[in-house]
Amino acid sequence: MNYISIQDINSLSKWVKSALKIKKNPLKNQELGKNKTLGMLFFNPSLRTRLSTQKAAINLGMNVMVMNFTNEGWTLEFEDGAIMDSGASEHIKEAAEVVSQYCDIIAIRAFAGLADKEKDYAETVISGFLKYATVPIVNMESAVRHPMQSLADAITMEEYKTKHKPKVVLSWAPHPKALPQAVANSFVEMMQMQKDMDFVITHPEGYELSPEITKDCKIEYDQNKAFENADFVYVKNWSNFKDYGKVTNTDPNWTVTAEKMALTNNGKFMHCLPVRRNVIVSDEVLDGENSIVIQQANNRTYSAQLVLQKILKKL
Amino acid sequence: MNYISIQDINSLSKWVKSALKIKKNPLKNQELGKNKTLGMLFFNPSLRTRLSTQKAAINLGMNVMVMNFTNEGWTLEFEDGAIMDSGASEHIKEAAEVVSQYCDIIAIRAFAGLADKEKDYAETVISGFLKYATVPIVNMESAVRHPMQSLADAITMEEYKTKHKPKVVLSWAPHPKALPQAVANSFVEMMQMQKDMDFVITHPEGYELSPEITKDCKIEYDQNKAFENADFVYVKNWSNFKDYGKVTNTDPNWTVTAEKMALTNNGKFMHCLPVRRNVIVSDEVLDGENSIVIQQANNRTYSAQLVLQKILKKL
Amino acid sequence: MNYISIQDINSLSKWVKSALKIKKNPLKNQELGKNKTLGMLFFNPSLRTRLSTQKAAINLGMNVMVMNFTNEGWTLEFEDGAIMDSGASEHIKEAAEVVSQYCDIIAIRAFAGLADKEKDYAETVISGFLKYATVPIVNMESAVRHPMQSLADAITMEEYKTKHKPKVVLSWAPHPKALPQAVANSFVEMMQMQKDMDFVITHPEGYELSPEITKDCKIEYDQNKAFENADFVYVKNWSNFKDYGKVTNTDPNWTVTAEKMALTNNGKFMHCLPVRRNVIVSDEVLDGENSIVIQQANNRTYSAQLVLQKILKKL
């Protein structure tokens, strides 16, 4: 069993229930991971994902080994048949096969490069590990997806929803740098698995996510209209998908403010963090009592722990 | 309970006694830290502090998670109300609150920038964590203080003192690079808590530490005179406090040599390390039998372990 | 007991047998390392060595502390009597003595600089630690040697040999960058301890390894002739020893191909990894059924575990 995409979840509602059980008693399964080793491979920086996944593994009694590829100056080749006479010193085939021998589970972070859409959306790194590793693979944010985040988001919404069929808005917001679409993509995929939620995506025209991800999700270009009666507002910047990886819009009118939140149904504010204050969202909203970003980050531990626990049980 | 400054110690003599007890039997409290996690956050490099604090945590049965902010390219915003449209990608508020959820204790290293005296002496980083974290904070060297070092220094002096009221000299020595005042500051604050020690600070004129730190400590600008009959000579470079963060003096006459040590009462040589040989101190002194720098470094483990143990008992 | 060179092994055949026993039951000695700490110091990047050595320590129940000197910007001075007024901030003497107090075993990686043959072959870094550390030292690849790799190589050959006296070839192959001679050197030293193996080294003229290492080993400048009837082909690039640290030959005719392997006695292909595909060796050979590079990497864990186990038993 791997955990690459939110679609690796057979029943989202059951998973969410299981995660909330883990949250009540996180040390219950300390024997499960005994003498099992989690290898955490980082091709990009990480704070929340690094610490929460490590904490989850510790809660399960696992050993953790961390490898920072970027800091180590270690680059991998992903092309089959490459003549490796420059650049990368090792092919993904050897790296994945070798690391599999030292670890029981491998967790990987490898962001989109945002230069080559096809390469990014082919999920070169995580696919390479999936192809060549001989142990389960966990996605700690790949080029296209961040499914441990989205599972944590689902857990958080379950905790904070106040009615049977809440309205959930995914809103784009401005950001000075080009960011991947991974968090938004996985959130959309997770929402498509929710049975009793109304979901709408709002962003400036031209900022459409991949249609293969959004499928028939409702898109509303008027942010104010989208926010009306929302129970959850999930905010995230992403760079342009069509004009790939470019920042073509930094319109401050899309910043989430108290005025905009006033349009909602006393809606909760969510963001995966890190968040740029007064760019993505105003201090007033982020520090307000309807902001649940800290609780959301806390659920990263239980999201990761559920994933590791499911995999450990199948080892 | 936090450990930010040596002034967080209620009774220095009792703490020193407790640390010496720990040193005799460091594994006695292995159950105390079971299932507790220490998060170590480094905004600057560390060798001794990193390894000794980690070792202390291990001795107490704790789990340790390490995050290197500098290497990760992760910078934090500390200003309230900042419009975060450039530079830092995360505010201390979120970072501190989030990491608090994954750790039972957070230890932080964040040196003085030496560019802005007010900002440094406001202890921006450690104060930010104190303000927003929801778990105890331990100072692994902040802009202004290094209280785990000073506690280790007190332990070491207790072990090596040969008379009731020893004379202790804190001596500046030259160094090619601008160094923070933190070690000297905390040493001064620790000496102010010592009941039976004569204390004198010696440095070139113009190299006064903050008067808010040194208060009424005796200052002697003649290094030779200061060394007379000293039982302990604690040597440390610091950059100029008045002409803030500048190196305005590299006078090799301040290097500690055997001739100077001959003026002391068979005095012990101390330094927090790392030390530049034949700049701060001559090989002869550092390698001599009165040098106790290695023993001093060893006590870093027991200093850290005492601090963690005190905090764990109050969790 | 230290493990610096393959010559620290008293009986290679006994060590290989012990390692194969460990491989069958790697968790048998989990009590041996309890409350013992391995300090892993990296002056250079590492993937296999880092993870396999850490895994070995975990298998033995040890605690592991990792310090990356390069990433931390920490450089050491190795010269006695140096006036340290620029460059390195700490002398090996203090660093080694201090770290010895926090660790029960210190493992070190410090590659050849390839600029100064005398300095490299004096093994400045590892010798400095040997001189000043007060705990056992393990070599995770020094300027001249990589004995944990060579022990893994011996274990692997024992597993895959099909006749009493196999023929083993060490073959140079081209590489775009200047690489150390350490792996080749240690392999040669290990082969000199093998009783029942025919050994030949092949490389272009001018690419002779240190004669103090190769002694009276057979050298064959014709790669094809060397490969004839070989049972194991161990391939590795190294930079020029005479014209020290230079790449004076990148002749693609030395790349190991299926045609060349056809000259062998159904020979196994070995390489320590990372390996540059289609430069050192063709895909066809590396992916072929006679390639045992992955199994070889797996044995790194048992090689390291045997070394640590031997040291732990003598602590």
TrEMBL record, chains A, B, C:
Pathway: Amino-acid biosynthesis; L-arginine biosynthesis. Residues 4-159 form the Aspartate/ornithine carbamoyltransferase carbamoyl-P binding domain. It comes from the Bacteria. Carbamoyl phosphate binds at residues 46-49, 74, 109, 272-273, 300. SUPFAM superfamilies: Aspartate/ornithine carbamoyltransferase. Residues 183-308 form the Aspartate/ornithine carbamoyltransferase Asp/Orn-binding domain. The keyword DNA damage does not apply. The keyword Amino-acid biosynthesis applies. Gene3D superfamilies: Aspartate/ornithine carbamoyltransferase (3.40.50.1370). Signal peptide: none annotated. InterPro entries: ArgF'-like, Asp/Orn_carbamoyltranf_P-bd, Asp/Orn_carbamoylTrfase, Asp/Orn_carbamoylTrfase_sf, Asp_carbamoyltransf_Asp/Orn-bd. GO terms for biological process: citrulline biosynthetic process; L-arginine biosynthetic process via ornithine. Catalyzes the transfer of the carbamoyl group from carbamoyl phosphate to the delta-amino group of N(2)-succinyl-L-ornithine to produce N(2)-succinyl-L-citrulline. Is essential for arginine biosynthesis. NCBIfam families: PRK04523.1. Homotrimer. Belongs to the aspartate/ornithine carbamoyltransferase superfamily. SOTCase family. This is N-succinylornithine carbamoyltransferase. It comes from Flavobacterium hercynium. The lineage of its organism: Bacteria, Pseudomonadati, Bacteroidota, Flavobacteriia, Flavobacteriales. The gene is argF'.
